[in-house]
Specification:
One of its GO terms (biological process) is vesicle-mediated transport. This is STXB3 protein. Keywords: Protein transport, Transport. Belongs to the STXBP/unc-18/SEC1 family. Helix 1 (about 5-15) packs antiparallel against helix 2 (about 20-35). This protein has helices at about 5-15, 20-35, 40-50, 55-60, 100-110. It is built from five helices and no strands. It is mostly helical. The longest helix is centred in the first third of the chain and has 15 residues, at about 20-35.
């Protein structure tokens, strides 16, 4: 059963004096993982109210493992443009085509954008194939 308001469930546990600070850090990390990050304000308030300022690096250092501790509203990553496959004949159960198929087809046809794929762009026009290996 999914918890609708996890902070309402989490706060009494965090404010309970009988729980160890490491257990509180674990609870905060579970909250951060479940919400895919939190705001800087919210994290600061949690750390201050729970009184774990000395151990706050245990939470903040997860960013070095690419865990979104602080959620930021950054522009979405560039998505690769998909090919129109609506006219292709598909099987009954396989309607989805992976992105790598589009990338590989564009690579074969030399249609990859050199900005997004600098190492996969076509050879320079002066290249004659006799380069040293």
């Amino acid at each position: 059963q999914k918890v609708k308001d996890s902070m309402r469930v989490l706060l009494p546990v965090l404010l309970n004096k009988s729980h160890d600070s490491y257990d509180k850090i674990r609870a905060i990390l579970l909250y951060i993982f479940s919400t895919n990050g939190t705001t800087q304000e919210n994290l600061d308030k949690l750390i201050q109210n729970v009184q774990i300022e000395s151990d706050s690096d245990m939470i903040r250092n997860w960013k070095y493992l690419d865990v979104p501790v602080i959620s930021s509203f950054v522009a979405p990553q560039h998505k690769y443009p998909r090919r129109d496959r609506s006219k292709e004949e598909t099987f009954q159960l396989s309607r989805w085509t992976p992105v790598i198929k589009d990338v590989m087809q564009d690579a074969i046809e030399n249609k990859l954008d050199s900005k997004d794929w600098p190492y996969c762009s076509r050879c320079p026009p002066t290249w004659n194939g006799s380069g040293a290996v």
